[in-house]
Design brief:
Layout (H helix, E strand, L loop, with lengths): L13 H20 L6 H8 L3 H7 L3 H16 L13 H16 L2 H10 L9 H8 L1 H17 L8 H21 L8 H19 L5
Keywords: DNA-binding, Transcription, Transcription regulation
GO molecular function: DNA-binding transcription factor activity; transcription cis-regulatory region binding
Protein name: TetR family transcriptional regulator
């Protein structure tokens, strides 16, 4: 006689719950204390797990920091942001992307991480380059792939999608992002934000919108 099947346990598996708790603790501590000021012991204590558990999920502090950066980006950006559906006017698609990206780059979390990365580091530190690959570069590549697909579908006329993605992001950041990094008040919301997004997308489309024949 076979043994009765064990009922599935509700919720996420324990190891995934612990990993999520560790990431949540790391995000909070890195933002509050900076990279150098955050110890793995503190992450373990805040997450309510052992230090051994932290290392079983993330091999070192550098890895944990990079995974926290990735998780923060995923938290703030819609999962389908760069899906190519060819639905709706190109301008509306770009406005949706621009609004989501602006929310990310001007968030307290993103500004704090940029300030952390701007701190002086030992010569030869690989952390800045690894951070760039984990956050900004991943977003840039996803957006460039979106532009490439839209260009292939005839919705845009772009010969260099990597360059165009850089240009769009530079327009989007504008003065507001620079002021935030300097610690100056720079909030954009409501009509002011709408005007900024409209101007960004309209300028981009003047350069890369398709020529209708």
């Amino acid at each position: 006689m076979s043994a009765p099947a064990r009922p599935a346990s509700p919720g996420r598996p324990k190891d995934l719950e612990k990993r999520a708790a560790i990431l949540d603790a790391a995000k909070a501590l890195f933002l509050a204390r900076g990279y150098e000021g955050t110890a793995m012991d503190a992450v373990a204590q805040t997450a309510g797990v052992s230090k051994l558990t932290v290392y079983s999920h993330f091999q070192d502090k550098e890895t944990l920091f990079l995974e926290a950066v990735k998780a923060s980006c995923e938290d703030l950006l819609p999962a389908d942001l760069f899906d190519v559906r060819f639905q709706g006017p190109m301008r509306q698609q770009l406005l949706r992307i621009g609004k989501a990206l602006f929310r990310l780059i001007t968030s307290d979390e993103a500004v704090a991480v940029h300030r952390i990365m701007g701190q002086q580091r030992p010569a030869g530190s690989t952390l800045p380059e690894l951070f760039w690959d984990a956050g900004p570069r991943r977003i840039h590549e996803a957006f460039a792939a979106f532009l490439r697909a839209e260009a292939e579908a005839g919705e845009l006329e772009v010969s260099d999608c990597d360059l165009a993605a850089h240009q769009f992001l530079a327009l989007l950041k504008g003065e507001c992002h620079a002021r935030l990094l300097c610690g100056c008040p720079a909030a954009l919301a409501g009509d002011a934000l709408d005007r900024h997004l409209d101007a960004t997308v309209d300028m981009f489309l003047r350069a890369y919108g398709p020529v209708r024949r």
